[in-house]
Design goal:
The complex is a heterodimer of chains A (333) and B (317).
Chain A (H helix, E strand, L loop, with lengths): L10 E12 L2 E13 L4 E6 L5 H9 L7 E10 L2 E2 L5 H7 L4 E4 L3 H4 L6 H12 L4 H14 L16 H13 L5 E5 L7 H18 L2 E6 L2 H7 L2 E6 L2 E7 H6 L4 H8 L49 E4 L2 E3 L4 H9 L1
Parallel strand pairs in A: 3-8, 3-9, 6-7, 7-8
Antiparallel strand pairs in A: 1-2, 1-4, 4-5, 9-10, 10-12, 11-12
Chain B lengths: L1 H28 L4 H5 L6 H11 L5 H14 L13 H36 L4 H15 L2 H15 L12 H30 L2 H8 L4 H38 L5 H10 L3 H29 L1 H15 L1
Helix pairs in contact in B: 1-12, 5-6, 5-8, 5-10, 6-8, 7-8, 7-10, 8-10, 9-10, 10-11, 10-12, 11-12, 12-13
The chains are: A alpha/beta (333), B mainly alpha (317).
Chain lengths: 333, 317
């Protein structure tokens, strides 16, 4: 739980920029995102809908829709190899094998006309030298591991409930023992009791297999229970980055503080929640200067122009705000 | 599942009887009199009346109808042609085989080319390959089959002298007719496959398939195509009807002695038994084809199969 053991990072994303083109419009989805992840740790990517979290994950796996999405700039280094410069063929070996992804909506993430067992076996066959029978046996073990009886190997997705489908999706993702797991809102589509089960299961499997994880969510509670590091994403930028303790105990960016204020408190009787005023910026026309400035109560003249510098407040705690002193002072009050 | 299909097959009986009733009444309602066409132009009134008695046309409508229905459905006797005086069941056998061959070839041609064009268009969306495939489809859909047939004859038979322009014989005689009949199907399938492929390629499970590290070929042919085929199967049923209709014209152009040509000659001569037999047989073929389409649905989509199975369970309770 300390960031002192600085070996070469397992995954490093540098200045990632992605845009989507829709007709003549350019949607700037990711605007210079950099972060690194140590082996075995979990990073939570937190942000509103449309902040670019899923795009970051899909860019790492290189499964963005190539017709509309363009990675303009940046590097994604996995153990020192830049994934963005790999051939498609080499990338296919990594997909599902070294990096795997759990998708947001289990209802649509499985092919409705293939047996779930085959959907797991397929990934295993692709990345190992196992025979079909061995791969099927391994797939059944995977099903058991996520808590589905192996007899259901031959069933179709429509015969499973939502939570069960998400377990199958997780089994597919973990089938080849990936080093990095990208979990894109794995619990959003599930109801709360199933959410807890699924999170608990992911945490357990992660522990068992030594997998690193990027967990995408907008739920601070999920972050608190399953992440070591947290990155707050706003309008395609990381506005604050630190360990779980740093972010939860000393939120420095006005946006992060706004997010925490919007969570109802258990110990005071609150009549109204405190929302962040305004709406996230239109990604086709991002504001000048700090992207959060139009909604920020600390915004000064300096915030309205130029690029916002990234300031390191404490050890490894990054914040993209020039007014953070004011924010910190406010916190003490 | 089995019960469902047994029920569907039983349902075919009233459908075919209805078709028989309709075609019998329609033939007698339209102008024209077979007896008048069979006797020579300067025949006396007596000769004409004798002919009517010979053909049984002097009897009341209901008597004729009853005789027709019992002969057809109880004795499976389709009678004799008014014109040639030969047994229809003997004549129609080889003709039906030819029409079926032509139909199957045309369907195979339409499906293979349509699926290939549709996939090419969908995987190269908004590129030149897409535009090319869609132009081919547009031409195919706009061009009447008989005109396509004439153009094909001009090119392949007259200019290049590669394929025979008419008649029957080996497989080479079927190539041009099959293309002419199937062209419309090619175009419809290509457009349908393209649009459903585009839907499917954008769906989450295709992204899941990609994220497993599958090759693009596996993603398209194993995950996307079977799903894209489900809505396409629906239009195959309609296409089959179109194809039998089209083959009547095409058989005339290529002088293929199939059911189409037989039916056309029968209609022109007011040869009631021939027309009735052809239409009844076509309706049976069509019913079977529709049943096969439904069966194909269940084969491709386990959700539909499950519905058949569950309806069976409910009935058993």
């Amino acid at each position: 739980m300390n960031s002192k053991d600085q070996s070469a990072p397992f995954l490093e994303v540098k200045d990632l920029e992605v845009f989507y083109s829709a007709g003549k419009q350019k949607v700037q989805a990711v605007n210079g995102v950099s972060f690194s992840l140590q082996k075995g740790r979990s990073l939570g990517l937190v942000g509103e809908t449309g902040a670019g979290k899923t795009t970051i994950a899909k860019a790492i796996l290189r499964i963005l829709p190539h017709a509309s999405a363009t990675v303009k700039n940046g590097q994604i280094l996995l153990n020192g190899t830049n994934l963005l410069s790999l051939s498609e063929e080499r990338m296919r070996d990594i997909r599902g094998n070294e990096i795997a992804m759990i998708f947001q909506d289990p209802m649509t993430a499985l092919n409705p006309i293939l047996r779930v067992g085959n959907q797991i076996t397929e990934a295993i066959l692709h990345h190992s030298s196992m025979t079909k029978a061995e791969a099927e046996k391994h797939a059944m073990e995977m099903l058991e591991m996520v808590g589905i009886p192996a007899e259901r190997f031959g069933e179709y997705p429509h015969q499973f409930s939502g939570g069960m489908k998400q377990r199958v999706v997780i089994a597919i993702a973990l089938a080849c023992n990936p080093a990095l797991l990208l979990a894109d809102e794995p619990t959003t589509a599930l109801d709360v009791t199933i959410q807890a089960q699924v999170l608990h299961m992911i945490a357990g499997l992660k522990e068992k297999l030594g997998t690193s994880m990027i967990l995408i969510t907008h739920d601070m509670g999920v972050v608190a229970s399953s992440c070591d590091d947290v990155a707050i994403v706003y309008a395609g930028q990381i506005v604050e980055y630190g360990t779980l303790e740093q972010i939860f105990d000393h939120p420095s960016h006005p946006y992060t503080r706004g997010l925490f204020n919007a969570i109802p408190s258990m110990n005071i009787d609150q009549e109204y929640l405190e929302p962040i005023d305004g709406l996230p910026p239109d990604p086709t026309h991002l504001p000048e200067g700090c992207y959060f400035s139009p909604r920020c109560k600390y915004a000064a003249e300096a915030c309205k122009t130029g690029n916002m510098p990234v300031i390191t407040t404490a050890d490894g705690h990054l914040c993209r705000c020039c007014q953070y002193n004011l924010v910190a002072k406010d916190e003490k009050k | 599942m089995l019960k469902y299909f047994a029920k569907r097959i039983l349902w075919m009986i009233p459908i075919v009887i209805c078709v028989a009733l309709l075609i019998f009444s329609l033939m007698r309602l339209i102008p024209g009199d077979p007896a008048r066409m069979l006797v020579s132009r300067d025949a006396t009134e007596e000769e004409y009346l004798n002919k009517r008695v010979e053909l049984g046309l002097d009897e009341p409508f209901l008597t004729q109808l009853g005789k027709f229905l019992t002969d057809t459905f109880l004795h499976f006797d389709f009678g004799k042609s008014y014109m040639t005086k030969t047994s229809i069941s003997r004549d129609i056998g080889p003709r039906m085989v030819r029409t079926m061959e032509l139909g199957l070839l045309a369907a195979a041609f339409a499906m293979i080319t349509g699926i290939l064009l549709g996939i090419t268009a969908a995987t190269h969306v908004k590129k030149w390959q897409d535009s090319l495939c869609m132009i081919i489809a547009l031409v195919g859909i706009s061009m009447p089959a008989f005109w396509a047939a004439l153009l094909l004859i001009m090119l392949f038979s007259v200019k290049l002298q590669l394929l025979p322009p008419s008649g029957i014989g080996g497989i080479q005689y079927y190539i041009l007719p099959a293309i002419s009949v199937g062209l419309y199907g090619t175009a419809t399938f290509a457009r349908q496959i393209r649009s459903s492929m585009l839907d499917v390629i954008g769906s989450d499970y295709v992204t899941t398939a990609r994220s497993k590290g599958l090759t693009e070929r596996e993603v398209i042919y194993k995950h996307a195509l079977p799903n894209a085929l489900i809505p396409t199967i629906t239009i195959i049923g309609g296409f089959l009807g179109q194809m039998f209709g089209g083959s009547i014209v095409i058989e005339t152009i290529f002088s293929i002695p199939g059911m189409g040509l037989y039916l056309i000659t029968g209609i022109n001569n007011r040869d009631y038994p021939v027309v009735q037999t052809c239409v009844i047989l076509l309706s049976i073929i069509f019913c079977i084809a529709m049943l096969l389409v439904d069966l194909a649905y269940a084969m491709v989509d386990p959700r539909i199969k499950a519905r058949y199975a569950s309806s069976k369970v409910k009935r058993n309770k």
